[in-house]
TrEMBL record:
Species, as recorded: Sphingomonas vulcanisoli
Keyword Magnesium among record annotations: yes
Positions annotated to bind Mg(2+): 91, 110
Enzyme Commission designation: 2.5.1.3
Binding site for 4-amino-2-methyl-5-(diphosphooxymethyl)pyrimidine: 58-62, 90, 129, 159
Cofactor: Mg(2+)
CDD domains linked to this entry: TMP_TenI (cd00564)
Domain (Thiamine phosphate synthase/TenI) ranges: 29-208
Reactions mediated catalytically: 4-methyl-5-(2-phosphooxyethyl)-thiazole + 4-amino-2-methyl-5-(diphosphooxymethyl)pyrimidine + H(+) = thiamine phosphate + diphosphate; 2-[(2R,5Z)-2-carboxy-4-methylthiazol-5(2H)-ylidene]ethyl phosphate + 4-amino-2-methyl-5-(diphosphooxymethyl)pyrimidine + 2 H(+) = thiamine phosphate + CO2 + diphosphate; 2-(2-carboxy-4-methylthiazol-5-yl)ethyl phosphate + 4-amino-2-methyl-5-(diphosphooxymethyl)pyrimidine + 2 H(+) = thiamine phosphate + CO2 + diphosphate
Superkingdom to which the source organism belongs: Bacteria
Name of this chain's protein: Thiamine-phosphate synthase
Residues holding 2-[(2R,5Z)-2-carboxy-4-methylthiazol-5(2H)-ylidene]ethyl phosphate: 156-158, 186
Length: 229
């Protein structure tokens, strides 16, 4: 059965405690890195993380081997740790283990969450891509995922996507299961509302922060206003 572990709701330690009277904490921001970064990226990340509450940061660098990602990861991971932001590695359980990351995000072809759990231990946050599929989400929950991710809700230029769920999948999930759900794909401060209202526990965003004409600081501030944080 799906794990109803209370820790599953605590990506940001201490956050949930402020909302003990509610059955689920309010929706939080989950920031995804640009697909490529250089060493100067930490300045941008610091501006983003200092602009408003960010629960988690995912290092998602495509087209690089684990060794190259590890070299770029070190200052980024330190920055997240200094600010109490969960540091999640995309795709690679081995890299997450090597870096001592807080967790790993697995796509449907990135490995079995059970193997990830065995390698990373009980405290690791393991997230699983579930596209627009209730079936995949229940499978991920059964396999011990700490969150399930649905998307892409809106058009995105960050990734080629084939699946476009309706916001109602978020409400369906949160009504039935305690495991948090993440909404992803083309989310901006202006279009996040229906996903938050439908029940997203997290909104995961990339382009609307890193490609924002007004800069990452203003973009995170705008998300904080949308989320009422
Ligand atoms: C929070 C979150 N949700 C979905 C994804 C997509 O993962 P995946 O399908 O493995 O695609 P890539 O990101 O690896 O291109 C994600 N990374 N994070
Ligand atoms: C990484 C990713 N996964 C998706 C999915 O649907 O599973 S959509 C996506 C891209 C997210 O970036 P942006 O906020 O710029 O759209
Ligand atoms: Mg992947």
């Amino acid at each position: 059965m799906i794990d109803h572990d209370d820790d599953a709701l605590k990506l940001d330690p201490g956050f949930a405690d402020r909302f003990e009277h509610q059955s689920r904490p309010p929706c939080q921001l989950y920031l995804i890195s640009p697909p490529a970064i250089d060493l100067g990226f930490t300045d941008r990340l610091a501006r983003a993380l200092d602009a408003g509450p960010v629960a988690a940061f995912q290092l998602r660098l495509k087209g690089l081997d684990d060794h190259s990602i590890a070299k770029l990861a070190e200052p980024v991971q330190r920055l997240c740790a200094d600010r109490g932001v969960a540091f999640i590695v995309n795709d690679s359980v081995g890299l997450a283990k090597r870096l001592g990351a807080d967790g790993v995000h697995l796509g449907q072809d990135d490995g079995d969450p059970r193997d990830a759990r065995a390698m990373l231990g009980p405290d690791a946050q393991i997230g699983v891509t579930c596209h627009d599929s209730r079936h995949l989400a229940m499978e991920a929950g059964e396999a011990g995922a700490d969150y399930v991710a649905f998307g892409a809700f809106y058009p995105t230029t960050t990734k080629e996507v084939q699946h476009h769920p309706e916001p109602s999948i978020l409400g369906w999930w949160t009504t039935l299961f305690e495991v948090p759900c993440v909404a992803i794909g083309g989310i901006t401060p202006a279009n996040a509302g229906p996903l938050i209202e439908a029940g997203a526990d997290f909104i995961a965003v990339c382009g609307s922060v890193w490609n924002a004409p007004e800069g990452e600081r203003a973009a995170v501030e705008a998300f904080a206003r949308t989320l009422n944080l």
